[in-house]
User: Fold this.
Amino acid sequence: MTNTLDVVFPSPVSRELHVLTLTPFYPTNHDDAVGCFIAEPLAALAESGIRNTVIAVEPVYRMRSRAHVSVPAVEWARYLSLPGGYGLPLAGAFLYARLVNRLRELHRRIKIDLIHAHAPLPCGHTAMLLQAELAIPYVVTVHGLDVFSTVQVRGKAGEWCRRVSQNVFRNAGRVICVSERVREKVLEGGGPSCCTAVVYNGVDPKLFQPVLREPASPVILSIGNLIPTKGHELLLRAVGLLVPEFPSVSWEIIGEGPERGRLYSLAKELRISGHVKFLGRRSRRQVADALSRCTLFALPSRYEGLGCVYLEAMSSGKPAVACRGQGIAEVIRDGWNGFLVDPGNEEELAGIIGGLLHDSARCGQIGKAARSTILQGFTLTQQAESLSRIYRGCAG
Assistant:
C-alpha cells in the first residue's frame, strides 16, 4: 500500500514550534513575485504557533539578492555551484558545508524542531544531511512537475540528480506536494516508501479580490514567464481567430522571457499587433490590479504542477482558462468555476473565450463560483493550517 497522507483538518495549536525554512525562492528587490508562495504564508503560520527562521539560498554565480521590502526579512546564504544545472547534484552538499556550523549554533541557542526544505535540490539534500548531523527531522515541498530535476539537467548529471532526490524523498518525514499531479510524479519515481501529503498553495483574498468596474473593452490577461510551455503562442493564434468577431478585444501579457521576440514577430505576422500588449514584469500589487480589471484570465500552459496565477485570478473573481492534465485541473471544475482545454487546441481555446465575451452574465457567474472556491479551501490561512498540522506531526 502506498504510504500517503491526505490533508485533513488541523489539530488544535499547542506549543510554539520553531521551523527552519530553507528555500531557493524568495521575493527580492528585483522581483517580488519570485517565491511569494513562501513568504506570504509566514504571517498565517505565525498565527498557528509556528515560528519560522528563513534562510534563502542562491549560488555564488548569481547576483546578490535582497529581500523585497514588502516581505519578512531573511538571511541569505550563498553556496558554491556550477552554472547551467551541472553543479546541481553537489549543490546540496556545498550548501550543507556553508550552513552546518551556523545552524549547529542556532540549534544550541534556540532548538530547531523541524526543517522545511523547498525543492529536493539543493535544499532537500542539505536538510537530509543536517538531519544526519544534528538529528533534526525535515519535510520537503515539491513545487513543480520536474520532481527529480531530470528535465532541467540531462545526461549523467541528471541521473545523479534523480538518485539524490530519491534519497531525499525517502528520508523525509513528509514530501509535501502542491497538487495530486505532483504527488503522482513523486511516487512514480520515488516508490511507495515516500510518505506524501498534498497542500495546495494559498491566496491572499484581500489582495486578490473582485471589483465592480467592467473594462471599457474586453481584456484577456495572461501572467507567466515567456517560455514555450506556457502556451502564449496558442493564445496568440486564438486571439487571431477572435479579432474579426471582437475588434475591440485586447490581450495583455505580464511576464518576461526568451520567447518575447518570437511572440512579437508572430503577432505582426497574424496582423494583431495592435491587440497585444507586452507589459513585462510587474509587482504583486500591479498584478492584482491587472487581474481586477481584466475580463478573463487565460494561460494554456502544458507543464504546471499547480500554477498560483490561476488561483489568484479565481480569487479576483475572474474565469480562468487552463489546460487539462495539469495540477490546476484539480481545482477548476470545467464550466462551473473555470474552463479547461486540451493542450494545443487553439479552436477550443478561442471558442471558450469567445463564448465568455459574448455572455457577460455567465462570465460573472463563473467568476463568483471561482471566488467562492478560493474562499472555501485555498486561502493563506487554510494553507498555513495544513502545514502546521504536518509540522507538528513530523516534529513530534
